[in-house]
Each structure stands twice: as structure tokens, then as C-alpha cells.
Write a structure and sequence with these properties.
16 helices, mainly alpha, two-stranded antiparallel ribbon, single chain, 2 strands, 316 residues
């Protein structure tokens, strides 16, 4: 049974930042070999000489990698917020979309922070994510402090710091003994995050993105009609951007066209899976598409912007 497992924005986020911890750990293993006096393999065509102080060189390189990955993940999360704002089938008012897109400022003319923009979306979806938002605040603030050196403030909003300290035991239990107090003290004192602190912040950010995505799907796709409307909107956008999408189904048998349509839906996160989040898509939805002419399909897709009733009745 086809259903929505992941939105297109979240798929892009996962491709960009989904295995960041694995990448960090892989580099750290290599740096540990350098620290132990390892040599460059002969087949590796780069300029590199063994450092006089291998441990110091490895430590500096590790910091560089941690900062690069933190920046990478923060940037990917910021893009995710913008992508959600641009998602046509989200039932959000323009105010929320403008905050996500950074198209509006607060009353004091200051920009909304990444945490505040995320909080606006979380509040819209009506689920609790206070701990994750506090960690996101720390992650973004630490990244900014390291990137901008002495120009960035080494402080967190009081609500975020209080939440982290209040729930430090819970964080330690959930994230392999992470010491939140040590992390906060290091941040304020101008230090660098440890490997565990960096990977924990990244993991919390990834889990927050997944929670937002699932809450969004449950809110917008709780009925078969809602899933069908989303499928129509996604297909309409797909065909609008590429004539090659039409050529891929032209002159083929219904059976082959069925596979093409199924692959198009999979690009939008509508697939056959066991861990369903949304309601199921109508069983004969893809079959009817695969047996329709281009003119009929274009007519069906033109109804996608007319509301759930228009889209769902077009294929019946």
C-alpha cells in the first residue's frame, strides 16, 4: 500500500546531512592513525609530509572537520526550513511561511533565528520539542562563535540554557552520557566542542528534522483524500518542470507506465513501506493514471490546486 513516508524536503536534507556522524567518525579514525605516526600511502597523489608533532596536527585537523560538519548540517537545516515554506501542500498561513523563508522580521526589526523559525513551524504542527530546540540553539550559537571568532557572542538565550541544565540527566541517559554542563561551560569559555558533543548536537538536529517531517505528514495526510491531493500536486510540479517526464510514459504499455508513475511518486516520498505515517493512497490511483492519455492526465493534474475534492474526484 502506497503512503507518504518522507517529504521531498526531508529527503534532500537526509541526502545532505543524513550520515554526517559516520563521515566525522571516519575522518577521526584516519586522524588517529596520523597521530600514531601513520604515513601517507604511496598511491595517494597529494602533497603531504608527516608533521613534526602528529598529535597536535591531528587535533587541529579534527577541530577543522568538526567545524566544517557543524556548518554543513546547520546550513542544511536552514535550507530545510526554506524548502518546507515552499512546499505547496502545507496548510500554513503566509505568516509562518514568511518566518521560515526569513521574508519578515520581528517587531524590533531583528531577524528570526534558526531556533525561532523552527519553533514557529513546531508550534504550527502542535508538538513538543523544547529539548531539541534548546540543543539546536546551542549548536547554531557554537557554530557561529567558531566561524566568526571574536565577533560572535558566546551566550545562549536564558530559556535554552535553563532547559539544557534542567534536563541534563535526561540528555545524559539519551545520548551516551553527554555532559551538558561541561558543554555549556566550554561554549561560554570560548572552547571547542568535543567529538561527542558535536555528534550529539548533529544527532539531535537530525532527529528534530525527522520529527517535524512526520508531524507534518500526519497533519496534512491523515486521510486517503489528503494523500491523493498531495500526490496530484507533486506530480503536477514534476511534469511542469520537464517534458522528459512526459516522454518517459509516452508509447508505453500500461504496465510499464505504472512503474514510471510509481517511481515519480517515490521521488515525492510516496512509497510502499511497513512504517506508514500517512493514510494510504487509493489502491487504483496509479493504475488509473497509467491507463489515461496525456490530455486526461493533464486535466486531472490541473485540478490539484482546486482542493482535495477536485483532485480526488478527477480520477474516479
Amino acid at each position: 500500500m502506497l503512503s507518504i513516508l518522507r517529504t521531498r524536503p526531508f529527503q534532500r536534507f537526509q541526502k545532505t546531512a543524513g550520515i554526517s556522524t559516520f563521515h566525522i567518525n571516519t575522518v577521526v579514525v584516519g586522524l588517529e592513525l596520523v597521530a600514531l605516526g601513520g604515513q601517507k600511502p604511496n598511491h595517494l597523489d597529494i602533497t603531504w609530509n608527516s608533521p613534526k608533532d602528529p598529535k597536535s596536527a591531528a587535533r587541529q585537523a579534527r577541530r577543522f572537520v568538526l567545524l566544517a560538519v557543524l556548518t554543513h548540517v546547520v546550513d542544511a537545516f536552514e535550507v530545510l526550513l526554506r524548502d518546507y515554506a515552499a512546499l505547496r501542500w502545507i496548510n500554513a498561513d503566509q505568516g509562518v511561511r514568511d518566518i521560515l523563508m526569513r521574508a519578515k522580521t520581528k517587531e524590533d526589526n531583528e531577524s528570526y533565528s534558526i531556533r525561532e523559525r523552527t519553533e514557529a513551524l513546531v508550534d504550527h504542527l502542535h508538538f513538543e520539542a523544547g529539548d531539541a530546540l534548546a540543543v539546536l540553539d546551542l549548536m547554531v550559537s557554537w557554530r557561529n562563535a567558531l566561524v566568526h571568532a571574536g565577533r560572535a557572542r558566546r551566550s545562549l538565550p536564558e530559556v535554552a540554557e535553563a532547559r539544557l541544565l534542567r534536563n541534563r540527566d535526561s540528555f545524559a541517559n539519551r545520548y551516551a552520557g553527554i555532559d551538558v554542563t561541561r558543554a555549556l561551560n566550554s561554549f561560554v569559555a570560548g572552547g571547542w566542542p568535543t567529538l561527542k558533543e558535536a555528534t550529539t548536537m548533529i544527532a539531535v538536529c537530525q532527529n528534530l528534522a525527522r520529527s517535524i517531517d512526520q508531524a507534518l505528514i500526519r497533519r496534512e495526510a491523515s486521510t486517503p483524500e489528503g494523500v491523493e491531493q498531495i500526490a496530484m500536486i507533486e506530480l503536477a510540479a514534476l511534469f511542469k518542470t520537464s517534458e522528459a517526464r512526459w516522454r518517459a510514459i509516452g508509447g508505453r504499455t500500461p504496465q510499464k507506465r505504472y512503474k514510471v508513475f510509481a517511481s515519480y511518486l517515490a521521488e515525492a516520498g510516496i512509497t510502499d513501506g511497513h512504517d506508514t505515517i500517512s493514510a494510504p493512497l487509493r489502491k487504483d490511483f496509479v493504475d488509473q493514471l497509467s491507463r489515461s492519455s496525456r490530455r486526461e492526465i493533464e486535466e486531472m493534474l490541473s485540478n490539484a490546486g482546486s482542493g482535495i475534492d477536485g483532485a480526488s474526484t478527477a480520477l474516479r
